[in-house]
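In response to reviewer comment 3 from the previous cycle, which asked for concrete evidence that the modeling workflow produces usable outputs, we include below a single protein chain processed end to end. The sequence was submitted unchanged, and the resulting structure tokens are shown without manual editing.
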Amino acid sequence: MDMKVFLLLGLIGLVSCDLPFKRTCSRDPEDPNTRLQPTECTNYKNIEYIYKLYGDLEGITNTLNTDSNKQKQNLSQLMEDFRKMKEDISETNKTQSNVIATLKNKVSYLEAQNQILSENFNQIERRLDESQNQLMENKGKLQKLEAKTEAAFNDTKELLRLYKSELSNLNTTARNLLLRLEAQLTAEVEKIKNTDKALEAKLTEQANKFLNVEDQLGKVKAAVNTWQKVAFSASITEGANIFTGPSRSILSSTLVFNNVFTNIGNAYNSQTGIFTAPVKGVYQFTFMTFGYNSYTSGAILVKNGIYQVSTWEFKGPDYSDTASNTVILQLNQNDTVNMILWQGGKIHAGVFSGFLLFTVS
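The workflow returned the following structure tokens.
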């Protein structure tokens, strides 16, 4: 086909220019049998025909070129699609190879698991056989146990029958004992009735004695109320290297023993350090002071603010000094007793105690 196109193009090249002139030729003889020799006129017609064919061929050529370009583009697209398909096929082959390798590994793993399961099933079957044998053995033991249980049940029924018979005998014995007890109680009641008068006489005597005891108890209570219980004991303790004092006057202010051990009757006031006699009576008081050799120490016991007894320690070579004293005083109700320091004295600790010996009228 390409060869024909080239030949036509060659012919067209010969007549590619416009005809130099147009000739007016006479018409060909109407008789087809009359054929003249070729003339310029007939050659012109041939050339004109060829020129027409050239135009047609040029259109066909353009069409063929357009189709050829389209075919080339389609072929290029097909080649590109083929290349992509080839790449996809290659990638798919790789993926399938990996999948196949994975599947092979899984198949190998499943085969191994299948082997393990087969062994486990064999073990389970053996255990089931052993369990079945044990079950049969236990069934035999259970049948023997049922037989023993039935025998024991029969023995129990027999014992129950015997117990019922014994219980009936016991009920009969209990009724007989109840009758005897009722008879004895009746006799005892009669005996009590006979001794009731004697008991009434004794009760009257006991009542008289009780009245006498009650009168004596009233007198004892009155005496106890008159003789009150009074006792106290308290200490005064400062912290490390801290002292109470010194006094700036001959008779200093009251020492307050604020750590109370005992305060029966509440006659001692731990806030003021003063003891107030609740009743008239004879009281005993004891006190102790403790100090160091660097200070003069000691204390004075006063009654209603009047000096009674005291302790005194001078400075000396010893490390510490302790002094104590005791006195018995007769106090009227509301008399006061307390402790004071000597002038210039200091103490580190001390104890003050007192109690009622007896009351006086």
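Confidence is low (pLDDT under 50) at residues 17-24. We consider this sufficient to address the reviewer's concern, and the full set will be provided in the supplementary archive.
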